[in-house]
């Protein structure tokens, strides 16, 4: 299909005479019907969507599908066998539907006078450890990213970063065995101390040692991984900025303060907003496996996640740990909203939403 052509008259002057030439514009065919907006976007970003797919599947299976279990926090869960005529023959789902509602009774367990002191202790441990990890982890991850970027030999830079990233893939179970081999009563360190005439160090009875152990373990495992995003941000900065600053006589510290840090701030703010949302959670594997169940250091090694798991193992009603976990999620969500609101009021361009 072609639209109607338009006619124009051109006046051409040749010497003293002129003549008119009638021309017509050539119509272009109407383009074919475009694909749908969603189809276009999917095709254009197919490679990115493919990279996101494994994470999206993991999120669906382990974050969204278990969400109906939230109602456990408001029920007295009892495992029951479904009758033969029930629409689904799954004990868990049938029990989830048929268990009686108890309102906020499961939450009351956390604030009973007999449990209040323990609950406050575990909340304190969780929050303080997370704040410590956030601050120290941020400083060391940024410092490591800057140091690797400043290495002129790219081979050694990649090698060092790979070595520092490797601990992220090592299981906490392996780390727990190493800690036990070093710090147990008959461990390597105590044998060494006794050989040189020092008093043995009973790590699994020494409360003051565990904050240091947790901090060192967290740094060892996560600093290399945490530096990746910062290193990617630094490498995206125009090198000419550093060259111009060096010509003007700026030291490496001034280059960091006036060039590197301003480019890192948006990423730092984003990651810290997300970290605040996890401040009432903890790395369960680390806090549960490293102390090896030592009851003598429970006051400094138990976090809310370990408390929830210990309640479940002790035979407490499922509603109690479910209520504690639900409370963690709600508090984390509220903290993200508050933190993002503060950022939006002070630096709107850095807000998460």
UniProtKB/TrEMBL annotation:
Keywords: Cell membrane, Membrane, Transmembrane, Transmembrane helix, Transport. InterPro entries: MetI-like (IPR000515), MetI-like_sf (IPR035906), UgpAE/MalFG_permease (IPR050809). It comes from the Bacteria. It is a multi-pass membrane protein. Residues 123-339 form the ABC transmembrane type-1 domain. GO terms for cellular component: plasma membrane. Its main location: membrane. The chain crosses the membrane at residues 51-74, 127-149, 169-189, 261-281, 318-343. Pfam families: BPD_transp_1. SUPFAM superfamilies: MetI-like. One of its GO terms (biological process) is transmembrane transport. It is found in: Cell membrane. Belongs to the binding-protein-dependent transport system permease family. This is Sugar ABC transporter permease. It comes from Anaerolinea thermolimosa.
